[in-house]
Amino acid sequence: MCDTLAALAPMTLNGHTLLAKNSDREPNEAQLLTAVPHKTHGELSLRTTYIEVDQVRETNAVLLCRPFWMWGAEMGINEHGVAIGNEAVFTRGGYCATGLTGMDLLRLALERCDNARSAVEMIIALLEQHGQGGNCGFTKRFFYNNSFLIADTTDAWVLETVGKQWARKKVRGTGAISNLLTIGSDWDELSPGAEEFAKHKHLLRGKDRMDFAASFSDPLFTTFSRAHTRRASSLRALGSSAPATAATMKAALRRHDNPGYALSAGSVGSVCMHFGGVVGDQTVGSMVADVDTSGLVAWVTGSSAPCIALFKPLVLDAEGAGLFGEAEQEEALSYWLENERIARNLHNNYGEKHRAIEQLRVPLEQRFENTMTDAAPEYRKQAARECFELEKEYRVAVWKTIEPLDYPTRHSPLFSMQWRGENRDLLRRWPAYGQSSENASTS
Fold first, then answer.
1. What pTM did the predictor assign?
2. How far apart are CA 380 and CA 147, in angstroms?
3. Residue 244 predicted with pLDDT over 70
4. Please, which contacts does 329-333 make with residues 24 or more away whose CB atoms are closer than 8 Å?
5. 205 in any annotated domain
6. Is residue 96 flagged as an active site residue?
7. Which of 78, 254, 380, 414 is the most exposed place for a label (fewest CB within 10 A)?
8. Backbone torsion region of residue 276, taken as left when φ is above 0, otherwise alpha when ψ lies between -120 and 50, otherwise beta
């Protein structure tokens, strides 16, 4: 489960394009920050998550948030100011045993394209050539098709797919996608074979022109995912009278449909999703891309639970400056795990600890935003590095603040049993997680 939303320059306070996404996956599926520099390639082929594709001679610098075991990414930006988020969509047919995953398509488009429209066309071309497919579950089998929200400094598009069939629609002002097909008969362009494919499967809907969503949506899984509720939440956040800001987008990613039970009950209707009970996923990484012709800033959590996580700025320039390079993925994993200790510690007394963390987080995030706003483009990289250094002090302050509040909160037996299992599995996969005195527990 995931959610992505975007606001184009006319709808934002600073006149920049903003794209935000939560990546909801299994609790122990660490999401790594990966910065890849601009490269020239001599190889003829490229290995993605499951299949090989032709390599191009030159690829862009990119910043990715990706599941640690995948080649592709859930969200990212490139040096030209293209930002993309993708979603699993549940459809009647079109699933394949292997092919390019949605995350592979996202990364390939970022590495190869310099604007949103060309990224849409690149994904379509790759989709039609290689198809999409492969197991996208970490510890379970999970197959799905994909939708994408793709933006640059001036344009944004929604691209929705079923197998090799697709529909695309230009975003006017603001837009949001979730785990459902949203393009009906209002598409701007449709794949040439979509109507014939739908007729062959006896799925074709629409009177005057094909209704893509009505034809291909799987009503059962789409309803169960509560994607309509989460997308409505994102659209409400974008529909306020005030112009959108990076802070607006962060707040949208932190929304719960039932704040009083954000953790102890969990809900697939919450944009900020927490694992537990009937909820099998949770938000394990979040990003807000602030894109302008003068440069770009990616606000990232590098951690689970954006409701308590600190968004830090990261600047990616044409030289590929970033937090963790491809050769530093062990460090990237350690960074995610260190933040995960805090997230899991909150299971004991979430309410008071959340409020205590907010008192530290809110002013520091505002300081970060002021720092990046005031910094000239040539100094943004240094300013971002200073913000990440301040996060180390913040993390120490958080532990000192929440340790006195560390007393058990009663959870349902199912919730406690589930989290004990997840904690054991995390320790088994990464023993270093248990070597800190600040380890998490769940009662």
1. 0.94
2. 32
3. yes
4. 329/32, 329/34, 329/68, 332/32, 332/33, 332/34, 332/302, 333/30, 333/32, 333/68, 333/430
5. yes
6. no
7. 414
8. left
Q: Is the pLDDT of residue 26 over 70?
A: yes
Q: Is residue 383 part of a domain?
A: no
Instruction: Report how far residue 307's alpha carbon sits from residue 386's, in angstroms, rounded to the nearest whole number.
Output: 23
Burial class (CB in 10 A: 0-12, 13-18, 19+), 220: exposed
Strands (E) located in 30-152: 31-36, 39-40, 45-47, 52-54, 58-59, 62-67, 75-78, 83-89, 145-151
170, containing H or E segment: strand 165-170
Element (H, E) at 22: strand 17-25
Whole-angstrom Cα distance, residue 222 to residue 211? 16
Q: What is the pLDDT of residues 362-382, one digit of tens each?
A: 999 999 999 999 988 888 888
Nearest-angstrom CA–CA distance, 252 and 275 = 19
- Overall domain count for the chain: 1
**286: which 2 tokens?**
């979040």
With respect to residue 151, please indicate whether it lies within any of the assigned structural domains. Answer: yes
Task: State the DSSP string of 275-315.
Answer: -BTTB--EEEEEEEEEEETTEEEEEE--SS-TTTPPPEEE-
Q: Is residue 395 part of a domain?
A: no
For the stretch 380-410, pLDDT in tens is 888 998 998 899 999 999 999 998 988 877 7
Domain that holds residue 24: 2-325
Q: What CATH number is associated with residue 105?
A: 3.60.60.10
Task: Summarize pLDDT for 86-102 with one digit per residue, the tens.
Answer: 999 999 977 888 999 99
